[in-house]
Amino acid sequence: MKRLIPTLLLVIICIGGFWYASSKDFFKESKAPVASLVKVNKDEVASFSIKAEDSEIELQRKDGKWTMNKPSPLPLNDYGADGWVESFNALSKDKTVDANAADLAQFGLEKPSQQFKVSLNNGTSYTISVGAPVAIKGFSYAMLSGSPEVFQLSDSQTKPLAMTQLDFMEKSPVTLEYDQVRSLSVAWKGEKWAITKTDADKKSFESDWKLDDKVVKGTDIGQYLNRLKFLSTEQPARPSSGINMSSPELRVEVKSVDASQKEITTVYLGKVEQDNVWFVKEGAEWAYALPLDSIQELANKELPQPPGTEAPPASPIPAAPMELPTK
């Protein structure tokens, strides 16, 4: 028995070593890193376009600023265009289907369902064409311009590129720095209220605020400012020059200070059109169609009561005691 002990120890050591090596993937072949189909420097991108069967979106970049040319100009957000270029750079093929395809129609690439094109300042351009779906769900046939290769491309990679016009648009017309706000007034259909900071040296949530003759705690002021800051639309903006702002039903005035403590007054006007209010910052280029409900909420100076704080129901008035008949 003693002679078997060294052998058993050796077997146990070998089993332990094999388990450790397996857990560290020592026996697995390392995969080569996935190469991008195209790699462009976003600072050298002059334009990009998104083509579908019945639509086209084109954005151009000049002096570091993006503008939308097709289908029509819109105010753009700060992240959509740069994020799109990053998604384009991240494209990688799943596998080659045909290295030298002669018949593109069988792959749906003779008339692609989608095309994503990037053009650089030096005139170079790259186009990814997406055709018919392959038999494996979640993949489609695709090609890169200048190459006869047809490859398989994951739909999850092209989805971030298939953006709509509204995906690029800035949907919020108001920018606020809460600690710089000194007062807010809202006039809506003849009713008006104003809230004013009482201590300019304190942060917005530390100072008390005055609403008419009522004191509002700083912890509640965010609810008023949020209603204005988070106004948003899901409709294309229009040039403000095309909106008739005579006799507006809404007027919002924000008084704030800049970094040098200089007071700035910003005015927003609103004009009702059916279930929307066209909302325009005075002097701004764009008007935004905001839901009527969100404007009515903004105009309501009362804050919602927290659950459980409703006033108790009034006690019923006790009935008068019944008089007994006298004999």
From TrEMBL:
Record domain DUF4340: where: 66-234
Domain of life: Bacteria
Annotated segments matching region Disordered: 299-327
Bias (Pro residues) ranges: 304-319
Protein name: DUF4340 domain-containing protein
Organism: Paenibacillus radicis (ex Xue et al. 2023)
